[in-house]
Design brief:
Length: 99
């Protein structure tokens, strides 16, 4: 059985809350994402808290698109910056994984 890579991504907690991270797995299934492996946990406190995500490449792509959409729709500059940082973190993790 081949080993399927899992991406580990660290995104701002504000971005995770803005996209309702607890609903991403379900929303991925509804959207037809083929590999919905997804888990998350929060760490840190205050304005710099983070959300650690472990997911498939397909879910990372889905999350990136959701973060982009939220960034465009956000009226709050803090949310825009956090979502943009989340997209950048996903891109870096994807490139680092070498696929």
């Amino acid at each position: 059985m081949p080993v399927v890579p899992v991406l580990h991504i660290d995104i701002p907690g504000i971005a995770a809350e803005a996209v309702l991270i607890e609903t991403i797995k379900r929303r991925g299934r509804v959207a037809g994402v083929s590999d919905v492996r997804f888990g998350y946990s929060y760490s840190g406190k205050g304005r710099t808290y983070r959300c650690r995500v472990a997911c498939s490449r397909e879910m990372a792509s889905f999350l990136s698109e959701i973060l982009r959409q939220r960034s465009v729709a956000a009226g709050d500059p803090t949310v825009i910056v956090a979502c943009s940082a989340g997209v950048a973190a996903i891109k870096a993790a994807t490139e680092e994984s070498g696929e």
